[in-house]
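#struct-help
A.M.: can someone run this one for me? Single chain, 279 residues.
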Amino acid sequence: MISITPDEIKVWAQLVYQACGIVLDAGKGYLLESRLGPLLRETASESFSELLYKVKADTTKQLTRKVIDAMTTNETSFFRDSSPFDLLQHKLLPELIDRRNRTARPGQPVPLRIWSAACSTGQEVYSIGIVIRELIGDSPQYQPQILGTDISDQALKRASYGVFTRLEMERGLNPAYLQKWFTSQGEQYKVRDEVRALATFRPINLLEPLIFPYRFDIIFCRNVAIYFSEKDKISLFDRMAQVLAPDGALIIGSTESITGITTRFAPHRHLRAVYYQPV
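D.P.: on it. Structure tokens below:
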């Protein structure tokens, strides 16, 4: 196995930060070695310096995309940490629907817009979709839309297929939901069209300007800002406040907090879950 030197860690940390905002300190050499090892072999590079040269020299940026795919953490599961989805099903969505119904134009479907800001391979998006279908069915009165975004092209490709292994299905998914919302394809399972139709996917770097044609009612941004610097966290949540509806809700990871990072949101608690609303 090729080892990475302290000097190489420094220059690789700079490249990774510029590419996707992940902050790596001097002690993360093992992470660079394990994540970039396959790319080292794929490009027949004899050192991490040689791989770095090839990445920078690649005008197509394909190697940069492969570095991003390797370095971004795609750890996810269906209904991961169930409390946000209980919050969505029993409080946020019912109250949102009530508010939107009061202001809806007669005869016009009510839009419900949700953004999964670091959707990885799609389990969070489809968990949200299942909650929506369980709550409102396929009623033409509503027009639910889920946007799933991620910086990893590889993760988004998998998410858009909506096909998962048996092991992925067994991690957090209620067996009743598996039977109701997925179809078996040999050793894999495909999300049913009723749920898949709710979702669209696109690549977004959360360090860049957030430009959307509308504001979101609910934003999920869980377990991604923990990899950002303090400065980038402040920028991210300030920009998210601008694309969230005034009565919308932001859901972050269960171990995260934005108190003291931004004054754009106020925390609220419902049972075991915490969510944030614009102030």
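A.M.: thanks! Strands lie at 110-116, 142-150, 163-165, 182-185, 188-191, 199-203, 216-221, 244-252, 265-270, 273-278.
D.P.: also worth noting: The two ends are 52 Å apart (CA to CA).
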